[in-house]
Design a protein that fits this description.
The protein is α/β, with parallel strands linked by helices. The chain is built from twelve helices and eight strands.
Length: 377
């Protein structure tokens, strides 16, 4: 990108002026991206081969992730959930698209905003809710909470409160898969704020150098906590960063779940074949604050309302109807999700807290580790 001839003061004024800077059209952004695209003809895309049951399964994942987080918000506001809670409402298209494009035994590593990713891998929402309430029936027996959810029975290596840590962590997992010859891939989720962390660039550099089977998925919601990306990143299009590593780069509208599915299916095939890592930039919009309770005073007036026009769930529901999926089947999925979440909350509330004598358990690694890690005896 050529350097601007304007003064730094003019640059600042130019960048700060548009109130809708962080909610520019995602399809337009993707089209202008330096990343390539999945441009197969209609009928030849992976998503075109999905049958009704598979399409409904993707929709169920999106709705379940949304309703899970809405219940989380409710429980947090009632004082039942401790600590900080970060939700990804509005970003479910990425989680569902990625989750359904992967193999069951692939690995993921997530962020402090991980609920939807873990739901998309098939983890129990009852165990997730119990974990967030600090109950012994939780995924980590009540010791991990929202920002440290993990589920090795589903190869969810873990959410993590350390910004950008998923990239080096999953690069290590990918190295193990390559050395073991498992044919599995690793997926690292992170946000646009984390994309400027040095450990992310180090991980991408090493992954490309060693041609590791890892996907780096940047969920670009344009905010690092409360700071818009244009205040911290010197490039308009984050996809250009892939060029620094000569890495295969794909850009996608993260609010279009089937586009995400197609993109990740292509990327996974590339990585699984031994060609090396893939960098995916998924444009999306966060419909909630950085954390539950965030007043969002940093958002320009009208931005949050405008962002709701790209909500991926009603968009995909409309697409299902266009694809002749009966509305009664869609409503049946929605009703089943409601029942599942109601039961999950009731069960989690009824569960016990971990006993005091367990406080020091799992502080140190236990050898030999009995698992479970699927596919490893």
């Amino acid at each position: 990108m050529a350097a601007s001839k304007s003064t730094s003061a003019n640059k600042s004024t130019k960048k700060a002026s548009p109130a809708d800077k962080s909610i520019s059209d995602t399809k337009g952004r993707a089209a202008a991206s330096k990343g390539s695209h999945v441009s197969r003809a209609k009928g030849k895309r992976p998503s075109d081969r999905l049958d009704k049951a598979e399409l409904l399964a993707i929709y169920r994942t999106m709705v379940l992730a949304r309703r899970f987080e809405e219940h989380v918000i409710e429980q947090f506001r009632e004082g039942i959930l401790p600590g900080f809670v970060h939700v990804a409402i509005g970003q479910e298209g990425i989680a569902a698209g990625v989750g359904h494009a992967l193999h069951d035994d692939d690995y993921i590593g997530s962020t402090h905003r991980a609920h939807a990713h873990i739901v998309a891998r098939g983890s129990s929402v009852e165990a997730m809710m119990a974990e967030m309430m600090g109950r012994i029936t939780g995924l980590c027996q009540g010791k991990g909470g929202s920002m440290h959810l993990s589920d090795m029975s589903r190869n969810v290596v873990g959410a993590n409160g350390v910004v950008g840590s998923g990239a080096p962590m999953m690069t290590g997992v990918a190295l193990a898969q390559k050395e073991l010859g498992t044919g599995r891939i690793a997926v690292a989720f992170y946000g646009d704020g984390a994309s400027s962390q040095g450990n992310v660039h180090e991980a991408m550099n090493l992954a490309q150098l060693w041609k590791l089977p890892v996907l780096f998925i940047l969920e670009n919601n344009r905010y690092a906590e409360s700071t818009p990306s244009w205040q911290t990143v010197p490039v308009e299009d984050l996809a250009v960063r892939g060029a620094a590593f000569d890495m295969k780069t794909l850009a996608v509208d993260g609010n279009d779940v089937l586009s995400v599915f197609d993109t990740v299916a292509e990327a996974a095939e590339f990585a699984r074949s031994g060609e090396g890592p893939v960098y995916i930039v998924a444009e999306t919009k966060r419909l909630s604050g950085h954390y539950v309770g965030d007043a969002e005073v940093y958002r320009p007036k009208g931005e949050a309302k405008a962002a709701r026009s790209t909500d991926p769930i009603p968009a995909f529901r409309a697409e299902l109807l266009e694809r002749k999926v009966p509305e009664r089947d869609i409503k049946a999925v929605e009703a089943e999700v409601e029942e599942t979440m109601e039961q999950a909350v009731v069960a989690a509330l009824a569960a016990d807290a971990p006993p005091a004598e367990d406080a020091m358990k799992h502080v140190y690694a236990e050898y030999p580790y009995a698992g479970p890690v699927r596919g490893i005896d």
